[in-house]
Amino acid sequence: MDIIFNFFLFCRAANIWRLNDPQGNWRRLKRLNIMLYALGQKMQGQQKVTDLITRTGGGIKGLIHIFNTTNSIYKPPFCLSAHRIYDMVAVFGGIKFNSVPRSFIKCGVSLRYIIHMRLKSATAMELVTTYWTLINAINETLPIAEQNDINEAEHLFHQLLLQKNSAYSNTTNKVGNVFGITLVPDSREQVTANQRTLNEFFAIAGLVAE
């Protein structure tokens, strides 16, 4: 997903950016910046995101009207949701325009800012496999209704395959077969190390490893 393009798409769809209204656009964008910066201070759920947008006012409420209301797990990239609004934080909420020096020290944060790792790094693949195991282990302790349908480790692995190197990378110039990959099993020593890490996590979490 090209989050820069989507940022302007969402602003246009929410009527924040309007044709032939430069002064109004600047006024609304400043309010949007303040709101996105506030979101970037802490991850919020859908209700709190909606409440913050409503309180901000000033032509920003249009974002709520374009929120996708379906419960589908996989949404097209042009659909905005309370979770995807953090993509807008990555583009426009890193610092607060009316307080640049102070906000530069305590900047807004988006998950899109997470540094992407090298695919060929053994540490990166160890993180993915361990993370995947931990998420599955946690899901098994929860009621079915509370289990996550999407394993974030799979999403991380997908980003590694795309070899993303920044929050603004996209697949425009990527060529090749996305399914043409080869998985090489770990050595017995590495499997033992991964199991040790998992056991340590269970001990900290107060769970019993199988």
TrEMBL record:
Record's protein name: Uncharacterized protein
Origin species: Oedothorax gibbosus
